[in-house]
Design brief:
There is one protein chain. The chain has 7 helices and 15 strands. By secondary structure, the chain is α+β, with helices and mostly antiparallel strands. It folds into 2 domains: about 120 residues, Nucleoside Triphosphate Pyrophosphohydrolase (Alpha-Beta Complex); about 130 residues, Nucleoside Triphosphate Pyrophosphohydrolase, CATH 3.90.79.10. The strands form 3 sheets. Strands 1, 2, 3, 4, 5 and 6 form a 6-stranded mixed beta sheet that branches. Strands 10, 11, 12, 13, 14 and 15 form a 6-stranded mixed beta sheet that branches. Strand 7 and strand 8 form a beta hairpin.
């Protein structure tokens, strides 16, 4: 389906086979065309918008002192962007920007300002960056782990257990009865903001079962005809949003698990008048709503 959701798309040639090469980092450092993506404590090094230019990733070269001083264990091979090798570099939490236009920025508020390929690249880099930070010790024996396979695996120094980056699958669904859409709001959202129903998939559960369970738990509404729509990587910190539509039986919503502050059915006409505030355009929730409205 086109266009792709934010953070998705074939923007990068990952070339997974290159991760098995023992000299991958030496080749990357010797190649003057290599692009280094820098992250620190979950934030990416970017160039601020100005003079009519949009915000963009602050790609560094291997000759930059910050890159040259970074230990190999803090490097991850991301892939090739427009035929140029990309490597993630994690700097210490105290690292600072060195140029006036440079800044360390959280991805979430910045994402819609970046070019789609750069937004997707930073989403990928951020997910790996946070995974390494949270898996420094073995889940089996508690010993330190080290980075392997160009940063796409961690291995325990003591027992040898290996671990790979994992995703948390979450469903997000636009429930409708044909004429009305079921939307809910969380108490922490801005006033009058409503969105689709979402929740994490549980062990031993299919995606369709998760859709039915989450809608029932949050609103008391029974659904059927669950249909897949699209997906969106969501590295906050490591989710994959799986979008669906589902047919719901009209009834007064019952807020059974207390996660929502309110849930209500809204017609197409009501949504068109702006009676509630909808999610931003770059969210998969908005794409599901627009799809039901016939806008995409």
């Amino acid at each position: 389906m086109a266009p792709e959701n934010l953070f998705a798309g074939a923007y990068l040639d990952r070339r997974a086979e290159a991760r098995l090469q023992e000299n991958w980092l030496a080749e990357a450092q010797a190649d003057p065309e290599t692009l280094f993506v820098v992250m620190r404590a979950g934030a990416a090094l970017t160039l601020a918008a100005g003079n009519g230019d949009a915000a963009r990733v602050a790609f560094l070269t291997g000759s930059d002192p910050r890159v040259a001083a970074a230990p190999p264990a803090q490097m991850v091979l991301l892939g090739w962007l427009q035929e140029r090798r990309c490597v993630l570099v994690t700097l210490d939490d105290t690292a600072a920007a060195r140029q006036p236009e440079e800044q360390f920025t959280e991805l979430r508020p910045l994402a819609s300002e970046l070019a789609p390929a750069e937004a997707g690249l930073l989403a990928y880099a951020r997910a790996l960056h946070l995974w390494h930070a949270s898996h420094r010790f073995c889940s089996r024996c508690g010993s330190p782990t080290h980075s392997a396979r160009a940063g796409h695996m961690r291995q325990c120094d003591a027992c040898g257990q290996t671990g790979f980056p994992r995703l948390d699958p979450a469903i997000i669904v636009l429930v409708h009865d044909g004429d009305r859409a079921l939307l809910g709001r969380q108490p922490t959202w801005q006033p009058n903001r409503y969105s689709t129903i979402a929740g994490f998939v549980e062990p031993g559960e299919s995606l369709e079962d998760a859709v039915r369970r989450e809608v029932a738990e949050e609103t008391g509404i029974a659904v059927s005809r669950v249909a897949y729509h699209s997906s969106q990587p969501w590295p906050f910190p490591a989710s994959l949003m799986l979008g669906f539509t589902a047919q719901g039986s009209y009834a007064v919503p019952q807020l059974l698990d207390g996660e929502l502050e309110d849930a209500r059915w809204l017609t197409r006409e009501e949504l068109a008048t702006g009676v509630v505030h909808l999610p931003p355009q770059d969210a998969i929730a908005r794409r599901l709503i627009d799809h039901w409205l016939g806008l995409s």
